[in-house]
Design brief:
Elements (H helix, E strand, L loop, with lengths): L2 E7 L2 E8 L16 E6 L1 H16 L4 E6 L9 H13 L7 E6 L1 H13 L5 E6 L2 H7 L4 E6 L2 E8 L4 E5 L8 H18 L1 H9 L1 H5 L3 H21 L14 H11 L6 H19 L4 H13 L11 H9 L10 E7 L2 E6 L2 H11 L5
Parallel strand pairs: 2-9, 3-4, 3-5, 5-6, 6-9
Antiparallel strand pairs: 1-2, 7-8, 10-11
Helix pairs in contact: 2-3, 4-5, 4-8, 5-6, 5-10, 9-10, 9-12, 10-11, 10-13, 12-13
The structure holds nicotinamide-adenine-dinucleotide (NAD), ligand LNCXM5UN and zinc ion (ZN).
């Protein structure tokens, strides 16, 4: 069974198809006027799934070339992005080509950015293969590469023509990647859907075990909630910033530790624990809710104690954030579970939270 969630933005709309075996149906998302297809992947995902993806794409009758990028967050950079352009130009792909991103969020973010820039914009299809990319990064059109000074600092808003989610491919993921992806799932409950947060608490074991019904529901609900937010505010002039809950802290961890040391989802999980503590100090989040956030992040298998970067280094890293305005840090904070606001916080309070969350809760 395949379910479809639609994403509607001012520039148009596209479907997210969620099901099993979608990898064998990729041709259904290839528009008739496409001249050639570039499948972009990495060696890990390519070895597992490129053959099937290529066979499916070839059913459209188009030529398919493959571009293989090195694997890892550390390669989400200019040099690796340029390998995509090299491959497209060497194979003389024209304006009517289609780029296909087969992989996790790193591949998806880079292929989307390449699609936004190649010949000033060509179409791209997202085929996310991690929990994180299926519930979050493949949807909504944020594309980017990292800069040594800050996460996702160079990029564009550029929507795919469709998202093809094959739940089966998750079974080859390492456990650590499943845990990291679940951090973005529980984020939606915290910012916009308290009942979904309750459901995540009740189903954490099933989610970690990739129980088919549980993981399908989590992916569908996450995509529905993200599609709703993106539909209201595609370019983050307001509401969309709530999707950044936990990310001011999380991105500082990723950049501060060196990209790839902590997984994005792990950093966001820990960042949500810190943002929960900051919410208690600023927007009145009650102690029971702070504990529920901590306990669920721990239960999905993500770290809850932040690395010791040094308080001033923490603040410096957090300032390199796209929500920063006029040098002032802004955070996504929770007055209660299921409701988020975006606002500044006094630096002495932020420092205090950095100290408090550095101590393990027993
Ligand atoms: N654009 C957005 O809205 C958005 C949202 C969230 C995260 N992101 C970005 O996404 C990135 C993180 O994505 P991610 O967590 O998917 O990491 P990732 O892309 O690095 O993938 C994680 C690892 O799993 C491997 N892998 C992928 N699919 C697999 C499969 N089915 N079986 C076995 N191994 C597989 C990859 O090769 C990689 O080693 C970060 O760069 C983050 O900034 C973007
Ligand atoms: O889609 C969004 O909007 C998000 O913020 C989703 C986040 O999970 C994601 O990590 C995003 O890439 C962060 O965006 P950034 O603008 O803070 O780099
Ligand atoms: Zn994220």
């Amino acid at each position: 069974m395949t379910t479809t969630v639609n994403v509607a933005t001012p520039g148009g709309h596209y479907p997210i198809h969620i099901g099993t075996g979608r990898l064998d149906h990729l041709h259904e998302s290839v528009p008739a006027d496409v001249t050639a297809i570039a499948l972009v992947t990495n060696p890990t995902v390519g070895d597992l799934y490129a053959k099937r993806a290529i066979a499916a794409l070839q059913k459209s009758g188009k030529t398919v070339i493959t571009i293989t990028l090195p694997d890892g967050e550390t390669y989400k950079d200019w040099q690796t992005l340029n390998l995509i352009f090299d491959g497209l130009l060497q194979n003389r792909l024209d304006r009517k080509c289609l780029l296909v991103a087969l992989g996790g969020g790193v591949i998806g973010d880079m292929v989307g950015f390449a699609a936004s820039a190649y010949m000033r914009g060509v179409r791209f299809l997202q085929v996310p293969t991690t929990v994180l990319s299926q519930v979050d990064s493949s949807v909504g059109g944020k594309t980017a590469i990292n800069h040594p000074l800050g996460k996702n600092m160079i990029g564009a808003f550029y929507q795919p023509i469709a998202v093809e989610i094959d739940i089966d491919v998750l079974h080859t993921l390492p456990e650590r990647e499943i845990s990291a992806g679940l951090a973005e799932v529980i984020k939606y409950g915290l910012i916009i859907d308290a009942a979904f947060f309750d459901w995540c608490e009740a189903n954490v074991a099933a989610l970690r075990a990739l129980d088919p019904d549980a993981i399908r529901y989590a992916i569908q609900r996450s995509c529905e909630l993200k599609a709703y937010v993106v539909g209201q505010d595609e370019r983050e002039s307001g509401l969309r910033a709530i999707l950044n809950f936990g990310h001011t802290f999380g991105h500082a961890i990723e950049a501060g530790m060196g990209y790839g040391e902590w997984l994005h989802g792990e950093a966001v999980g820990c960042g949500m624990v810190q943002a929960g503590a900051l919410s208690a100090a600023t927007t009145g989040l009650d102690a029971d809710s702070v504990k529920r956030i901590h306990d669920l992040v721990q239960a999905i298998g993500c770290p809850v104690v932040p690395p010791n970067l040094g308080t001033e280094r923490w603040v410096e890293l957090m300032q390199v954030d796209k929500k920063t305005e006029g040098g002032h840090l802004r955070f996504v904070l929770l007055p209660k579970i299921g409701q988020a606001v975006v606002q500044g916080a006094p630096l002495n309070v932020v420092r205090d939270v950095l100290h408090k969350t550095a101590v393990p809760v027993l």
